[in-house]
Design brief:
Elements lengths: L5 H15 L9 H7 L2 H17 L6 H14 L7 H25 L4 E6 L6 E4 L5 E4 L4 E6 L4 E7 L1 E5 L8 E5 L2 E5 L3 E6 L4 E8 L1 E6 L8 E4 L2 E6 L8 E2 L2 H8 L2 E8 H9 L6 E3 L8 E7 L3 H12 L1 E5 L4 E5 L1
Parallel strand pairs: 5-7, 16-19
Antiparallel strand pairs: 1-4, 2-3, 3-6, 4-5, 6-9, 7-8, 8-11, 9-10, 10-13, 11-12, 13-14, 15-17, 18-19
Helix pairs in contact: 1-3, 1-5, 3-5, 4-5
């Protein structure tokens, strides 16, 4: 609430108290007509009305009781004014105190929402308000919702690496497809696959992964070095070794292939390439490759394929075609 708005809000509280107190002449006074003709004043009055309505739901709140007691103490000095004026001021102050209390309470429950995206071949690091960090891989979209009681990230597309600041009172949740990964303070990766599945890999600490589908079972604990996968039905697999080299690679702008079929390797590489590489030698798709390549160093990647697999790269206007020699 800005300082410049305080006189308007106090005036709105006083008018609301007078009208609510059934002072028959209040709404017919010229001063009232002048006050309500100002759009800012009208908005302030609506806020006072909303505060009064919501106050019934917050009855007994320690914050509200403390604010009302403070307002009563401060108004003791106004006891010399005419009785009618005093009670108008008291009611106005009470409404204002309730409004402030509601704002304080709702501040802890209302979520701040923001969305972050990366384009093809782009990576991005997001520093969150609590000290957590999200590293977005290529073609990724996340929506962050933070409140006083919750830290939630929705992974809408792609892959993200989460370094979570410790906060036991506010667990960190990543929602993706039909599953939720929950952590307090740890480091883990969530990737949405092309076949309608999600992979959760843990680099540090432990997380729990639970499905939200109809067949969802007990949450699965996943420790450092492990990974799980779940589909759209929410069924979570048992833990298995995670491909940490791949994750740590893309974090430092490297793409790592460890005994990966060529067809899968090209699919992964094309996520980072503006010009897709297409294999026109189907018999070579199952050949496995190994190597570490800097993302964006197309020449080194193609050179390794040409020399190691006896392929020939033909560059066209829209794609690069790999042909058998």
């Amino acid at each position: 609430m800005s300082v410049s708005m305080m006189p308007t809000l106090h005036a709105a509280s006083e008018w609301f108290a007078r009208i609510r107190g059934r002072e028959a002449d209040a709404a017919s006074e010229p001063a009232w007509q002048e006050f309500i003709s100002n759009p800012e004043n009208e908005l302030a009055l609506e806020q006072r009305e909303a505060a009064f309505t919501l106050s019934g739901e917050l009855a007994g709140s320690p914050q509200i009781e403390a604010l009302l007691a403070q307002a009563e103490r401060e108004l003791q000095s106004a006891s010399r004014v005419p009785r009618r004026r005093y009670w108008g001021l008291a009611a106005a102050a009470g409404v204002a105190a309730i409004a402030v209390g509601i704002a304080l309470i709702l501040r802890g429950t209302t979520a701040d929402v923001a969305q972050y995206d990366t384009a093809r071949a782009e990576e991005r690091v997001i520093n969150l308000a609590d000290g957590s960090v999200i590293t977005l891989n290529t073609s990724t979209s996340v929506r962050v919702s933070y409140s006083g009681h919750r830290r939630q990230v929705d992974l809408l597309a792609g892959e993200a690496l989460f370094s979570v600041a410790h906060d036991a009172s506010r667990p960190f949740e990543v929602h993706a497809l039909s599953g939720i990964t929950t952590a307090v303070g740890t480091r883990f990766d969530v990737e949405l696959g092309t076949a309608g599945s999600a992979d959760v890999s843990v680099l540090e600490g432990t997380v729990t992964v639970s499905g939200t589908g109809g067949t969802a079972a007990t949450p699965v604990a996943v420790s450092a070095g492990q990974a799980v996968r779940y589909g759209t039905d929410g069924t979570v697999s048992g833990p298995h070794p995670a491909d940490l080299g791949r994750i740590q690679g893309w974090e430092v702008h490297r793409i790592v292939f460890s005994d990966v079929p060529l067809g899968q390797a090209l699919e992964d590489y094309n996520r980072y390439s503006a010009v897709p590489i297409v294999l026109k030698a189907p018999q070579m798709e199952s050949r496995h490759i190994n190597g570490v390549f800097r993302i964006g160093d197309e020449a080194a990647f193609l050179g390794a394929l040409e020399q190691g697999l006896q392929l020939h790269a033909v560059r066209g206007p829209d794609q690069i075609v790999l042909e058998a020699r």
